[in-house]
Write a structure and sequence with these properties.
alpha/beta
């Protein structure tokens, strides 16, 4: 099983980033479940602005991120909060990954239905739920599954980064990401969901759901 953590810190050096420090703790916890964890520091690569998988820009290096997503069972966005929002790099990544939704619309198949999503958020104050909600809405609308308690946060209001609250969130996040990803993979739930053909709005849809089981 593979997970990719996309770190959207705006700090030039990963070592200076609190988001990176918290991501490393989550990575270590995920690895206790035998998960292979890849970390991408978004600031290290040039990513075009846009909403397409291929923007046509020669300098664009986002292709590696799409490859990471396709290979992963678990996708995690790690971001600080700036002015009440996820970072600009996180937003840019979300806009580009949204290009996969165009493929779903055209083909009726989604590359994201068999994946689970979680988030890591750092801030100097509380209010992470707003950025968390933005990212969860993004993931759900694109077909990813968002299990319960798959977030880990840390801010100065909690004191040191290794405080008991963050430690508990880290453990819950890793456990739930693993359990939901394992279940979806083994039962092929994503593929089964896409195989259910929607009918007319109303009772006819219920009939189709019953017949599909």
């Amino acid at each position: 099983m593979r997970a990719t953590i996309f770190i959207a810190s705006l700090k030039k050096e990963p070592a200076d980033s609190n988001t990176t420090k918290l991501s490393k703790l989550v990575k270590k916890e995920l690895e206790t479940y035998g998960i292979n964890v890849v970390v991408r520091y978004l600031r290290n690569r040039r990513m075009s602005h846009g909403v397409d998988i291929d923007t046509g820009d020669d300098f664009d290096e986002a292709a590696i991120y799409f490859d990471d997503i396709r290979k992963s069972d678990i996708v995690i966005m790690a971001t600080p909060i700036w002015w009440g929002q996820q970072s600009s790099l996180a937003q840019q990544w979300m806009e580009r990954v949204g290009g996969l939704d165009d493929v779903y619309i055209k083909t009726g198949k989604s590359e994201l239905y068999n994946k689970v999503f979680g988030c890591i958020i750092t801030a100097s104050n509380d209010g992470f739920q707003h950025a968390q909600g933005n990212m969860y809405a993004f993931a759900s609308n694109l077909g990813m599954t968002v299990p319960p308690e798959v977030h880990c946060t840390w801010g100065t209001v909690l004191g040191k980064i290794d405080n008991p609250e963050t430690e508990n969130m880290k453990k819950n996040m890793a456990r739930n990401l693993f359990l939901w990803a394992k279940t979806i993979s083994e039962l092929k739930l994503g593929s089964r969901a896409l195989d259910i053909k929607p009918g007319r709005v109303g009772l006819d849809n219920n009939d189709k759901l019953e017949k599909s089981t």
